Amino acid sequence: MSEILQSTSDIPFEDSILEAGAPLESILCTEELQLRHSRPPDYEKENRALVALMGALADSPSTIFQTLAETILGVTQCDSAGLSLLTVDGKSPDACGKRFYWPAIAGMWNPHVGGGTPRNFGPCGDVLDQNRTLLFRHFERRYPYLLPVIPAAEECLLVPFHVGGKAVGTIWGITHSDRRKFDAEDDRVMASLGKFASSAYQAVVYIDDLKFQVAERQKAEAEVRELARGLEARVRRLFEANVVGIAMWNLEGAITAANDAFLHMVQYVREDIASGRVRWTDLTPAEWHRRDERAIADLKASGIFQPFEKEYFRKDGSRVPVLLGGALFELGGNEGVAFALDLTEQKRAQAELAHVNRVMTMGQLTASISHEVMQPIAAGITNARAALRCLGSQPPDVEEVRRALGRIVNEGNRATDVIDRIRSLIKKAPPRKDDLNINEAILEVIALTHGEVGKHGVSVQTRLTEGLPPIQADRVQLQQVIINLIMNAIEAMSGVGKGPRALLISSGQEAMGGVLVSVQDSGPGLDVEDLDCLFDAFYTTKSAGMGMGLSICRSIIEAHQGRIWASRNVGTGATFQFTLPAANGPDA
Amino acid sequence: MLSMPDLIRAGSKSWGSRAGGASGRLRFETLKTGMNQLPYNEGPGGRVSKCDARVIAVVDDDDGFRDALQLFLRTFGFQVEAFASGKEFLRSSRLEAVGCVILDLAMPEMNGLEVQQRLAARGLQIPVVFVTAQRDDYLGQCASATGALAVLRKPADDVELVRLVREALGGQ
Q1: A104, A197, A223, A437: which sits with the fewest CB atoms below 10 Å from its CB?
Q2: How many Cβ pairs within 8 Å bridge chains A and B?
Q3: Helices (H), A427-548
Q4: Which of the 8 DSSP states describes residue B99?
């Protein structure tokens, strides 16, 4: 039967034990302790016991409770002795627990180690309630759940013990026959041992806690080591996979390590890096230094820099376009890592696409183009006819002929210029950057789109600000952007039945000192939620069209370190605007 | 299709505006005249009388063509005045003396059609010859329907142009 109580889970709770037997007073006989004949104190034995306990505590703290139980048994000469500790989980001591458990028992009840009693309905609970030593006789008469715990207890002396002013358990001795009765001396010895139990308890808790902490720390350290090993392997894998170019660097300009992908991009070899000859400051063409400085400012402020497009010099002096992002290893530090993606292919594809777009656009502009070419030719022919007439008159008017011939030359040159301009827009040429006047570029485009504008009954107004700073740009690409914006506007407005079709093209200075160009139409406006997605490739609101025009505009403007965006007009229509940094501006 | 008043209104505001929605190709009258048919070697008799006081106005925003046409017409003894825009022409104090106007169709601010309408609105019945560098032009279609003498494509056929001018002056 006793096995039932071996497990704490079998200990009944007070709400299930309502059939209480005898009242508490009937099983208590504490006052008898003072009446009984008391044996003389044996301090020597007691001291030896305490010294032994201290030794045990020092040598093997985990056994201290069992040693304590055996000491009580020895000193009081009872039949069973042990400890009850409050617990929540049935294992570790806890003053707030709802159950007592028996961590150590010496003597006849030793097999019941691990058993226990409820906090609020049992002898230990009574002791804590009254906070004093109590002597019980046949407590199973009130607490019938103790009946199976054999052999039955004749008397039980229970002493509370405290830890930090809080009662957390009891120590106790039991006699199973009337061979020996507890007396006042037992009470005193038990109280004395109770104080020891308190220290022992604290020591054990402390040691357990320490052990736990040590174990936790060791576990954490092992985990960190494991993680570091795993991370290192992963970083190495990333580095050596060569999916992107990776370089380690410091803010002074040195490149301390680079993977093959990075080396391949800039066409250096590992030895070049090892020698310290390769510096990212030297790899960067002069016009990108300012952009680099911005990235470094970001690094110092936030520890990272967002990816941006730039160029590096290859070893042979040619340039490679890259997308570069990176981070410092630690904020405020000097060293970091950069990830570089070779954009050569993308740039090539972009250029290809831009060229296709230009050719297609010029195809749409044939009416305008023929007009532009025809004007000087017509003027030339008419001059030639006038010259022939002058030669044929009597006498020939040689002076007038000379003037006419001079004009023919001029008109021929004018026709050549027009054709050159058109050819430059159609031919495939590597981008080049020149200082150029934005207004001139705009006016040339307006001349080209003249016919297209007229065909659709659109009125064009210009509001060009004089004295704008020159910009560093590829004329053809920039004009392509303006043509695309104008053609888009014309197309948007051609759907408008009645109402004015007005196009306003203006230039001005933006806050940062660069130039701002805006193309404003009176079309139906933009019927999309996200205005930014207009610039995504293959995004189109037209039934015919590839959705490439605006995406090409954006890549061109961004390659010029500018910005392009769309907005809805207050009235009707839409406005597309872009900015470009001034040639000598802060962002150039 | 826009109505004429719409076209004029759209054009009046703008830089180089034209009417929209061309629905067909304009058939220009072109005379395939060779150069050798021109009276280049004619004597003084080929010229119009110096005493003809009426003026031919050339209105074209294209400097090169305007100057060339002015010179060309003068070789026939015509009195020619050139104007760079419709506005300039309409402001001229000698409008009464103009016997024929050669009007470019595609001009900024005010196109040729509108110039013609303004003239008509003032009760000036000046014969008009339109010229245009466009090859596929809705404005040209409209112009040919306005009672103009002709709509000529640049470079204007010289024989035809001279014939038209003479007709205009002789008819007055």
Answers
A1: A223
A2: 139
A3: 438-455, 475-494
A4: E
Question: Could you tell me which residues are beta bridge partners of residue A326?
Answer: A305, A338
Closest CA–CA distance from residue B83 to any residue of chain A (Å): 15
Sign of torsion, CA A343 A347 A349 A350?
A: positive
Cβ distance B20 to A374 less than 8 Å, yes or no, reads no
Token representation of residue A560: 């010029």
Distance, CA of A530 to CA of A541 (rounded, Å)? 13
Nearest to A205 by CA among A48, A47, A87, A126: A87
A380's tokens:
């030339």
User: Which DSSP helix (H) or strand (E) runs through A517?
Assistant: strand A515-521
> Nearest Cβ partner of B41 from A382, A392, A410?
A392
Chain A nearest-CA residue for B65:
A379
Other Cβ atoms closer than 10 A to B121:
8
Answer yes or no: are the C-beta atoms of A377 and A415 closer than 8 Å: yes
Contact A378 B106 (CB under 8 A): no
Longest dimension (CA), chain B: 51
- Please give the full DSSP string across A116-169, using - where no structure is assigned: EEESSSSHHHHHHHHTS-EEEESGGGT-GGGTTSSSPPSEEEEEEEEETTEEEE
Using CB atoms, pick whichever of B11, B14, B154 lies closest to residue A374. B154
- Give yes or no for a contact between B54 and B98, defined as CB atoms under 8 angstroms apart: yes
pLDDT value for A540: 63
Closest of B22, B19, B109, B20 to residue B59, by C-alpha: B109
Please, which residues have CB within 8 angstroms of residue A119's CB and are 6 or more apart in sequence? A14, A86, A97, A98, A99, A100, A125, A128
Q: Running DSSP on this structure, what letter comes out for residue A93?
A: B
Q: Is A453 on the interface with B (CB under 8 A)?
A: yes
Please name the residue ranges forming H helices in A267-397: 270-274, 280-283, 289-302, 344-364, 366-392
- How crowded is residue A440: how many other Cβ atoms within 10 Å of its Cβ? 11
A474 and A433 Cβ atoms separated by less than 8 Å: yes
CA distance A431 to A473: 9
Q: What is the DSSP letter of A365?
A: T
Are the beta carbons of A569 and A575 closer than 8 angstroms?
A: yes
Q: If we measure between CA atoms, which residue out of A449, A458, A468 comes closest to residue A513?
A: A468
Helix axis angle, A398-426 relative to A366-392, nearest 10°? Answer: 160
Cis peptide before A395 (omega within 30 of 0): yes
Q: Has residue B171 got a pLDDT over 60?
A: no
DSSP-based three-state secondary structure for A214: helix
Could you tell me the two tokens for A490?
Answer: 């014309």
**Contact criterion met (CB below 8 Å) for A514 and A587:** yes
Query: Quick check: B136 pLDDT over 70?
Result: no
> How much is the average pLDDT of A423-449?
83
Nearest-CA distance from A377 to chain B in Å? 7
- The whole-angstrom separation of Cα B57 and Cα A205 is 116
Tell me which chain A residues have a C-beta less than 8 angstroms from the C-beta of B130.
Answer: none
Q: State mean pLDDT over A147-155.
A: 90
Instruction: Report residue A339: phi and psi, to 5°.
Output: -115, 125
Angstrom distance (rounded) from CA A66 to CA A455: 107
Contacts of B41 in chain A (CB under 8 A): 392
Instruction: Render pLDDT for A302-338 as a digit per residue (tens, 0 to 9).
Output: 999 999 888 999 999 999 999 999 999 988 889 999 9
Task: Enter the tokens of residue A511.
Answer: 């806050």
> For residue A511, what is the DSSP state?
T
Write down the mean pLDDT value for chain B: 72
SS3 label, residue B83: strand
Cβ atoms A75, A49 nearer than 8 A: yes
Beta carbons of B155 and A377 less than 8 angstroms apart: yes
- The CB density around residue A394, as the number of other CB atoms within 10 Å, is 9
Say if residues B76 and B169 touch (Cβ distance below 8 Å): no
